[in-house]
């Protein structure tokens, strides 16, 4: 089922020296989820945030913490991120040999489970577990860095997932991550997305701009509905 449009600012683009204040500011500015990009320098060529940082910023927002795990192997860290405050834990099929088991692990801890598809990962990779998950995250850039350009070929994947999710009758977020700005937000929502991750576009210009940045993304997305 398709739900209302939500905006998930990625704190990868926040000022890390003031991370707690940044999470507070983006929450006050109207964000719906706090998107947290976890990278290990192995699954993706960048290193970012561990569970201790998630725990440290948990008190700064009552919004769901949407934790995107770009680490391999992923299973040994699931419980630590869940305990640290993750509400949604999203994994890539390539980050472990048993995707279904990883999803069971997440749900067994009472957290929402997501599966993320890289630009070259087909829809078929998530289809067998669609009945067990709460979110599908379509990567519209190759994971690892903020500030990259939206890969338009992923719009077909979003359309295909929209059809599958609607046919399933289940409530599953269809989230898009990478290169989201007002123009691509509209395209992604028109294709069927209902959660937009935005790093660069959400945090551009500093805290005084956050509410306006989020409002512009939301309006652009709604124009695509
Ligand atoms: C990339 C991350 C994204 C990133 C998006 O690997 O998963 O969440 O922060 O950044 P922008 O919006 O700048 O493309
Ligand atoms: Zn992400």
Shape: globular
- Rounded mean pLDDT is 98
Give the termini separation.
14 Å
The amount of helix comes to: 25-40%
Radius of gyration: 16 Å
What's the CATH class, please?
Alpha Beta
Low-confidence region ranges: none
Query: Structural class given helices, strands, pairing?
Result: alpha/beta
Count of helical regions: 8
Spell out the helices and strands N to C. Answer: EHEHEHEHEEHEHEHH
Main sheet: strands, sense, barrel: 8 strands, parallel
Ligand kinds: D-xylitol-5-phosphate, zinc ion
CATH superfamily: Aldolase class I
Query: What is the CATH topology assignment?
Result: TIM Barrel
Number of strands: 8
CATH architecture: Alpha-Beta Barrel
Strand content: 15-25%
How are the strands of the biggest sheet laid out side by side?
Answer: 1-8-7-6-5-4-3-2
- Structurally, the number of domains stands at 1
Describe it for me?
The protein has 225 residues and is of the alpha/beta class. The protein has one domain: TIM Barrel (Alpha-Beta Barrel). It is 36% helix and 18% strand. It contains eight helices and eight strands; from the N terminus they run E-H-E-H-E-H-E-H-E-E-H-E-H-E-H-H. The protein has helices spanning 19-28, 51-58, 75-84, 99-108, 154-168, 182-191, 200-203, 210-224; strands spanning 6-9, 34-39, 65-70, 88-91, 112-117, 135-139, 173-177, 195-198. The protein has an eight-stranded parallel sheet with strand order 1-8-7-6-5-4-3-2. Helix 5 (154-168) links the parallel strand 6 (135-139) and strand 7. Helix 2 runs parallel beside helix 3 and helix 6 (182-191) packs parallel to helix 8 (210-224). The protein is globular and about 45 Å long. The two termini are 14 Å apart. The structure holds D-xylitol-5-phosphate and zinc ion. Zinc ion is lined by residues 10, 35, 37, 68, 177, 197.
């Amino acid at each position: 089922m398709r739900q209302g449009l939500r905006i998930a600012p990625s704190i990868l683009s926040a000022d890390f020296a003031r991370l707690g204040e940044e999470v507070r500011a983006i929450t006050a500015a109207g964000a719906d989820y706090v998107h947290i990009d976890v990278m290990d320098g192995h699954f993706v060529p960048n290193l970012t945030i561990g569970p201790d940082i998630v725990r440290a910023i948990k008190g700064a927002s009552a919004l769901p913490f949407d934790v995107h795990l770009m680490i391999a192997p992923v299973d040994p860290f699931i419980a630590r991120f869940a305990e640290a405050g993750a509400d949604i834990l999203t994994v890539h099929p390539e980050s472990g040999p048993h995707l279904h088991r990883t999803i069971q692990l997440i749900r067994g801890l009472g957290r929402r489970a997501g599966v993320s598809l890289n630009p070259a990962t087909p829809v078929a990779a998530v289809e067998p577990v669609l009945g067990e998950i709460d979110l599908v995250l379509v990567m519209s850039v190759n994971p690892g860095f903020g500030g990259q350009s939206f890969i338009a070929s992923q719009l077909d994947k979003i359309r295909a997932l929209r059809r599958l999710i609607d046919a399933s009758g289940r409530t599953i977020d269809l989230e898009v991550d990478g290169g989201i700005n007002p123009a691509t937000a509209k395209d992604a929502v028109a294709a069927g997305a209902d959660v937009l991750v935005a790093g660069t576009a959400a945090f551009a210009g500093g805290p005084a701009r956050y509410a306006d940045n989020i409002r512009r993304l939301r309006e652009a997305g709604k124009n695509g509905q």
